[in-house]
């Protein structure tokens, strides 16, 4: 199987499961397991803290000892097993424990996927945007699938679709893997320094990582409370799936054409536009608490998420040596996609109890400083 096709299929299958877990699992915990919003926020937020620990420490260690192929296979198998345990959870404590265990394993697949793409970009001229668009397609199909199944079978279907998605992804890991992913990428012996030290002594990398932390963390309320927010607006399950899909459809178009459209765009300009678009997105939801305004805000997802993500991937692919990529992806997954999101999930749950709109407006505490950081530092590292 050609690398481009292999990467596209794996992106599709992984983000199908991500599209079930990220926007719907908080709703599953409240409706099927009977947790309160506060309890569900603790369960999901604690899982994100575990995810941050795992992707920050365990993923770089794993990829220094084993190939990406092995890491992905083992992570996929155990993710499927642990996800199945959720069906037996019957208390807050048990669900919390299962969530933490799942979040130690499953999220490592995200930096593994992105590291695979970066290596294939360097070695085989993979078109990242083209393959990543299949990930967005998987995400959007997951949203439509869940919307349909919830209408037919109730919220119980959320767990079973997640398990089915993980089963397909696990099967795909047994298919022939590109040769470069079977290698273990370690720093040259002559360097004598750790990947962490190399990365954190780079001012430009630290700046880019900080921007990613702020901009990706700002999606915490959208990921965890968007589904519940639309229910509060009395939107039906199938329509919720369609509304959430709007963001991903525009994300797909963005990734399809990003390589071509942004070829001459500086990385700092990408981050600046992402920060401005994200700020506007959360302000719109706060000031206009209507279905129409939420739908309009979905159009900005390709900027608030897609552009920020693309900018980070372009930076590490073009500026970092091969042996640093897995560690950089682990840091991105741990700090930008997990820790910041976890902290803001706790804060968002508190704000949502006061007023749903506050949970979204509160995210500008990250996006507005990001604008300032880009403007202040762009000449130093662009």
UniProtKB/TrEMBL annotation:
It is found in: Cell inner membrane. Keywords: Cell inner membrane, Cell membrane, Membrane, Transmembrane, Transmembrane helix, Transport. GO terms for molecular function: lactose binding; lactose:proton symporter activity. One of its GO terms (cellular component) is plasma membrane. Signal peptide: none annotated. Residues 6-360 form the Major facilitator superfamily associated domain. SUPFAM superfamilies: MFS general substrate transporter (SSF103473). The chain crosses the membrane at residues 7-25, 37-58, 70-88, 94-113, 134-152, 158-175, 196-215, 235-258, 270-293, 299-317, 329-352, 358-377. This is 3-phenylpropionate MFS transporter. It is a multi-pass membrane protein. It comes from the Bacteria. InterPro entries: HcaT-like, MFS_assoc_dom, MFS_trans_sf.
């Amino acid at each position: 199987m050609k690398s481009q096709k292999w990467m596209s299929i794996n992106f599709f299958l992984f983000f199908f499961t991500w599209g079930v877990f990220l926007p719907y699992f908080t709703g599953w915990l409240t409706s099927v397991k009977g947790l309160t919003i506060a309890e569900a926020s603790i369960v999901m937020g604690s899982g994100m803290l575990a995810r941050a620990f795992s992707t920050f420490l365990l993923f770089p260690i794993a990829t220094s000892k084993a190939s990406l192929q092995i890491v992905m296979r083992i992570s996929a198998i155990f993710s499927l097993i642990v996800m199945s345990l959720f069906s037996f959870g019957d208390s807050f404590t048990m669900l919390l424990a299962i969530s933490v265990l799942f979040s130690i394993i499953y999220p490592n697949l995200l930096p593994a996927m992105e590291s695979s793409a970066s290596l294939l970009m360097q070695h085989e001229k993979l078109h990242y945007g083209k393959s990543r668009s299949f990930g967005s397609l998987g995400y959007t199909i997951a949203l439509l699938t869940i919307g349909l199944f919830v209408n037919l079978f109730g919220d119980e279907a959320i767990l079973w679709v997640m398990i089915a998605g993980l089963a397909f992804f696990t099967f795909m890991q047994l298919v022939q893997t590109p040769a470069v992913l079977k290698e273990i990428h370690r720093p040259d012996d002559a360097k004598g320094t750790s990947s962490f030290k190399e990365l954190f002594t780079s001012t430009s990398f630290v700046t880019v990582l900080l921007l990613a932390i702020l901009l990706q963390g700002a999606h915490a309320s959208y990921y965890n409370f968007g589904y519940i927010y639309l229910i509060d607006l009395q939107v039906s399950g199938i329509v919720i799936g369609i509304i959430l899909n709007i963001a991903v459809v525009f994300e797909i178009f963005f990734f399809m054409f990003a390589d071509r459209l942004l070829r001459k765009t500086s990385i700092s300009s990408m981050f600046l536009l992402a920060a401005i678009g994200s700020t506007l997105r959360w302000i719109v939801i706060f000031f206009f608490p209507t279905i129409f305004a939420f739908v309009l805000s979905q159009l900005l997802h390709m900027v608030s998420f897609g552009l920020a993500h693309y900018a980070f991937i372009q930076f590490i692919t073009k500026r970092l040596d091969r042996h640093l990529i897995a560690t950089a992806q682990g840091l991105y997954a741990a700090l930008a996609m997990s820790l910041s999101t976890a902290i803001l999930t706790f804060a968002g749950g508190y704000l949502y109890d006061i007023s749903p709109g506050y949970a979204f407006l509160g995210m500008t505490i990250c996006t507005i400083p990001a604008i300032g950081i880009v403007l202040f530092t762009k000449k130093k590292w662009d």
